[in-house]
Amino acid sequence: MKKKKVLIGIIALVAMISFSACQSKSVKEEVERLDLSTATWEEIENQANGKDVAMYMWGGSEVVNHYMDDYVLPEVKDKYNINLKRIPITDISDTINQILAEKEIQKENGSADILWINGENFKNAKENKLLWGNIVDKLPNYENYFDKTASSNTLDFGLETEGYEAPWGQAQFVFTYNTKYITNPPKSIEELEAFVKENPGKFTYPAPPDFTGSAFVRTVIYETTGGYEDYLIDLTREEFESKIEAAWDYLKRIKPYLWREGITYPESSGKLDQMYANEEVWMTLSYNPLHSAAMIKSGQFPDTTKTFVLDSGSLTNTHFLSIPYNSKEREGALVVINFLMSPQAQIRKMDPNHWGDQMVLDPSKISDEDHKIYENLDLGQSTLSLDVLKEHSIPEMKGRYIQYVENKWTDNIVKD
After folding, report:
1. What integer best gives the mean pLDDT of the chain?
2. How many domains does the chain have?
3. Domain that holds residue 134
4. Same domain, yes or no, for 290 and 409?
5. Is 237 in the same domain as 325?
6. 238-245 CB contacts, 8 Å cutoff, 24+ apart
7. Rounded to an integer, what distance in angstroms lies between the CA atom of residue 404 and that of residue 327?
8. Alpha-carbon Rg of the chain, whole angstroms?
9. pLDDT in tens, 162-211
10. pTM > 0.90
């Protein structure tokens, strides 16, 4: 009995010591963490020195991964002594769910420090209060080089960002085709239908919720229902469902003429790119108008590749970077994001030799030296001119509609 009491006492003592240690550690961390509402940028950079920062981002593109691994990671290490870790994921929604689970168990030091995010995932993260707060007001490069009044920087699929996201790049939907087989690409959804029927098995699109496949479906919705305007306002479910019925009719009409007769669809845009490169299909799709140039330069696409947009316009949106509410390295995350928004990093990102992603900063605000580099970028013969892209740019529908469209695609097309 006495031994049992001694044992119980030892266990209690260990528990008290552990609790005390945890409390001391918690207090220490609280002391070390800056008050970012008042901290200067110099203080933030000093605090970020030597820290490990985890950036969760889609890992399905070799060119994007090379840009990060060969350029960004070494640069932030050299400039700021930050150990940036690229965490490749298939779908950022999985990370959003992970952060939500961390919130439910009150995990204050989360796994992720930076998220590559937009659209429905931003909507879900914001509504569930999973994001830290207004970050753009703390970023010198946003202040110096960005148009803070531009809707492309302040709206994400129609939702106010309120500074929770920092713009990183701009996406615009394009069709990619092989001039070896196609001399006059279609300019409307009706012409695309005619092409598909005349060339069975040579066209398809990724299955939603793949981002590019979903963008193709939204393009069909715009084209078959009179344009984008009605999708920027709040419709009832009944109004929305009735309005998009014409899109399902169209997709059902072309389904038997798709690759493998529409019985199956590529699971990703990367898979469709492989099929295009192997000449199984004569077109592929991208939400990056410079993607084809990058793929040609890397030897993955034939040099007979070009791109086109439909006359009525092409979907355009901005992709963003954000910080989770429970990031344990907020200072480091801010410094990394600020670097990614710098003219140096943005211009290099736009170069198809390194990524080929449109920059989002305002070219009129950068130095003459940087502007000269920007103007002299070789965007490749497959890329439409920036003027043509701008002329055909149209906005995305509200984010609240996206998941509904993707679910209805499964119901109306896959299960049909």
Report:
1. 91
2. 2
3. 41-170+318-380
4. yes
5. no
6. 240/401, 240/404, 241/408, 244/405, 244/408
7. 31
8. 24
9. 999 999 999 999 999 999 999 999 999 999 999 999 999 999 999 998 98
10. no
Residue for token pair 């952060």: 99
Within this chain, do residues 397 and 252 fall inside the same structural domain, yes or no? yes
The yes-or-no verdict on residue 36 having pLDDT over 70 is: yes
Backbone angles phi, psi at 388, to 5 degrees: -65, -45
CA nearest neighbour of 336 among 54, 118, 58: 54
Specify whether 136 is located in the same domain as 48: yes
Which tokens in the block code for residue 199?
A: 């060339």
